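Task: encode each sequence below as structure tokens.

Item 1
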Amino acid sequence: MFVWPALSNRLERKAILEEISGRYSPEEIEQMLQHVSQRPFGFLFVDLKTTDPDRMFQDSLLQYLRPSD
């Protein structure tokens, strides 16, 4: 799943954050979205099929992310 930081609809953004939160809270995922928005055309990639939570989130398919990154 690709998530662009510029989601303009607040309710849609909240729904997506709640849907993909599991090991990480919606607030932590929001931090990752803020991180990827620093890069021009950046996006958050979410691998919904992985069994390793540390490999679930990627910054524009370039590096894996965790909330502490």
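Item 2
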Amino acid sequence: MLTNPDCIKPFNHDDAKLVAQADALLDRAFGIGRRSKTSYRLREGERAVEGLSFGLYRDDSEMGQVLRAVISFWHLRVGEHGHHAVMLGPIAVEPHLQGIGLGAMLMRHSLKQAAQRGHQLVILVGDEPYYAPFGFSRVPDGRLLLPGPVDPARLLFCELKPGAFDNVGGLVLSPSRFQPRTKTG
């Protein structure tokens, strides 16, 4: 449960100390094997979406602000036309604090911020029973292709604007790897 000293604040990916705290939290939550997943390949070498990374912090009189949970979003391009989407993740909560609603608070806050900033489509790899209450649904089989192995049952999308997923399909890439299709002849 969120208590008075807990607060959601923007997460600064340029703060090396904070990034180290987040990496340690992610390792505790998911293990070091997390770095080999396809979703990590999509984030490699990219910058998180400005204004859509958040941490849940608790003020500690001895340690200062302690990161208890973190969430980030990353730009994506989908299909040959490069439809814009954002990828949610990672989202992580300290293992001993899981199950009390901290992740849900970050989800609601960050999705609201994404919509207010004009983002229309969110993609993630995760458990549908957890993400469905936030508006996520399973991507129809074959509609999206990620550049690595992904369990199709875990590939989810959320329309922040109705119809945002209409006519979107194909290979999902990070912006630096996307090459717009050019007409020839």
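Check on item 2: The chain has one domain: 6-173. Residues 1-5 have pLDDT under 50 and may be disordered.
End of task.
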